[in-house]
């Protein structure tokens, strides 16, 4: 099962980055391959999100449950669609001059063909997605320091 983990420093307030990540309805505005999003509240700390993802000839809709634990954690658990498994987690911690994002994701498609196709591109796709969040932060968040965004080991 493909998985990816990434840790980055961003020169923005943790709360601003948290809000950016939690605003799933805005994902089609900046996230590669995200064509549409619909959010349905479950309770004060959870919602369901339907995302339509498209890449070349492939177009799929999947539903996930998003559990919010502000200001530092978001958990996404797959509930319906073309996958067997999808989990991702965002952890955010305050840091001098910004915040550190710790992101990890793992997934498995039901279709062997889709798994092979996406699996081969998975690492690059996730890097592009994380970079899209970083670019969105540059566009909508006010930096709190002059420190550059950095990929951490």
3D architecture notes:
The protein is of the alpha+beta class and 153 residues long. It has a single domain, classed as START domain (Alpha-D-Glucose-1,6-Bisphosphate, Chain A, domain 4), CATH 3.30.530. Helix content is 25%, strand content 50%. It contains two helices and eight strands. It has helices spanning 14-22, 112-140, and strands at residues 3-10, 34-43, 46-55, 58-69, 73-80, 83-95, 98-109, 150-152. An eight-stranded antiparallel beta sheet has the order 2-3-4-5-6-7-1-8, covered by helices on one side. The longest helix has 29 residues, at 112-140. The model has no long low-confidence stretch (mean pLDDT 90).
List the helices and strands and how they pair.
Blueprint: E1 3-10, H1 14-22, E2 34-43, E3 46-55, E4 58-69, E5 73-80, E6 83-95, E7 98-109, H2 112-140, E8 150-152
Antiparallel strand pairs: 1-7, 1-8, 2-3, 3-4, 4-5, 5-6, 6-7
Give a brief outline of the structure.
The protein has 2 helices and 8 strands; from the N terminus they run E-H-E-E-E-E-E-E-H-E.
């Amino acid at each position: 099962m493909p998985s990816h983990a990434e840790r980055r420093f961003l020169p923005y307030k943790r709360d601003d980055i948290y809000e950016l990540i939690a605003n799933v309805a805005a994902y089609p505005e900046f996230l590669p391959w995200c064509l549409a999003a619909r959010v349905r509240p479950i309770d004060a700390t959870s919602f369901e999100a339907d995302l339509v993802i498209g890449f070349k000839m492939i177009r799929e809709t999947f539903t996930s449950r998003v559990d919010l634990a502000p200001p530092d954690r978001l958990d996404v658990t797959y509930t319906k669609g073309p996958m067997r498994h999808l989990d991702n987690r965002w952890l955010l911690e305050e840091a001098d001059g910004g915040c550190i994002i710790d992101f990890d994701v793992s997934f498995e498609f039901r279709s062997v063909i889709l798994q092979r196709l996406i699996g081969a591109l998975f690492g690059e796709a996730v890097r592009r997605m994380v970079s899209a969040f970083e670019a969105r932060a540059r566009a909508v968040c006010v930096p709190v320091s002059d420190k550059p965004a950095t990929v951490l080991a």
